[in-house]
Each structure stands twice: as C-alpha cells, then as structure tokens.
Predict the 3D structure of the following.
Amino acid sequence: MQDTLLEVKNLSVDYETDEATFYAVNDISFKLNEGETVGIVGETGAGKTTTALAIMRLLPARTGRITGGEILFKGEDLLKKPENEMRLVRGALISMIFQDPMTSLNPVMTVGKQIYESLEIHNLEHKSKQQLEERVDELLELVGIPARRKNEYPHQFSGGMKQRVVIAIALACEPKLLIADEPTTALDVTIQAQVLEMMHDLKKRFGTAMIMITHDLGVVAETCDNVAIMYAGELIETGRVEDIFEGTLHHPYTKGLFGSIPDLETSANRLHPIDGLMPDPADLPTGCRFHPRCSQCMEICKTTHPKRVSFNGHDIVCHLFTEGGAGK
C-alpha cells in the first residue's frame, strides 16, 4: 500500500485588498500518495494556482493569507514551519514548474547558472563545484538540451527549450513532489506532447509524485491517476481518472467541461460551452457556487450549500446526488 505524501485538509486562502476580500480557495481537502499524479482541473480563476502557491508557501506577502486548514507533507504541517525551514523544503523536497516559461527564468543569468544555483542552495552533501557542474550537464542532457548550451541565456532558447530548462531546475534535487502549473500552456501542440512525455519518463525514473494543474482534460487523461475538479475555490468532484472519464455520474460542471471538448469523430456536432462566467471571488453566490450557470439548478441549490456524496471514492458535491435529488 502506498504511503500518503501530501494531505491538504480544509485549506482556505483569501486575498485582502483595500477594496475587498477575495475568497480564492474555500475549505478544500485532498490526498496524494507517493508516486501518484493528481490533476487539478478548472477554468481560469478557479483557485488552482493559489492552491499550489499555498502548498509552496509562496502567496503574495501583503495580500495573500491562509485563513484555515493544514498542509501535511510527510505528516508535518508546512504551515507551522518557519520560513528558514521552508526554504530547505522548496526545491529539495517540493518543486514547482511555474505557468509561463517565458518569464520564469532570469534573463541576465545563463541557464546553467540558474540550474547550478538550485543545486548550490541545497548542497547538503557538500559536493564540489566540479561535481555540481557535472550535475548541471547531466540535468540538461536529461531534458534533451545539449550540455554545451549551458552558458547561453534564456533569450537564445525557444519556448519549448525554456520549459525544459524550467523542468531541469525543478528536478535538480530530485524532489518528492513536483507541482506543474499548466506546464504546456505556452507551447505549441507538438512541443506539448514532447514535454508531457518527458515529464512522464522523469516521473517514472525518480518516483516523483505530481500535482498537474491544467484546464486541458486531454492532458489529465494522459498523465494523471486521480482528478480533482475545481470551481470557484472548491473541489466539486474528485475521483480516479477512470471514474471521471468513464463513469456515468458527474457534477453538472464536469459534464460542461466534457461538452466543451471537440470530438473529431462527430465533427458535425457543435461544441456546448458552459453558459456564463466564473463568479466574482469577492461576491460568491449563496448555496451552490455553480447554480447561476447550471441547467439543472433546483431551488435548494440557490440557498443551501450541497454536501459531499461518495460513490466508492468518487466524490461529488451536488444536490442532485443527495437524498431526493434528481440524479441519484
């Protein structure tokens, strides 16, 4: 049986400004076992990146605040660690691939120096400079970049190559957990496939657990063991990848996400996008957060927040599946 690596319990995150309080993440819980990959899926503004930044303790200092919950990594609550201890966790035990490779690298440092810097900070074995340089060469070759290019600058690389450098930095210390925040968004389709295949191979080689943050269900189907559907800061459906892609019970929002995917076999059929927009996190709807956009909305949805219902580990937060609901 696999051990639990990460457990997020009842996590809530707000952003406080002079004008309003934005409720970005609202009481979410999930687990991740060693070596597994969980995909967090949702539209822009759902709270996916905020969840990742909270785990890394990288929320904006002046506006972001964790208002409740626990983040247990190997049984230790990261929220209780002082900043000097968190610096030892970041990069060494938990790494993150940030959303935009074009802006994730320092433009005035060579790519080799940026990988070297990560190794130097976490050089607990006191390796020599030459050994660290050799590790830089090894990492670049590992992600498909010739080691001779380590003295070049980010502007000399394409978008796909920059993303490979970012991945090399994230994997430099062989972390136990890798958080990938939409790692293929800025890349063309061919490079996307190459990067995903490379990440899958590296994951198997190092036994790294992953959190894959994306809005692309195709990426989830190819890379993830478990799926968490996020909407307005809440996890509204969670389950194994086969539950989500092959099961018959789904939250109406999940159905909407699938309806927005083009089907090449039935190209004559039009897409069915979800009506409306993600709610304002400073003014969330009462009851079910999704009810203003839901075609199956009932009166109870407008006033009462739904309970979580479990079907053998496949959890859905929706009144349709509670006692007396139409979808039960």
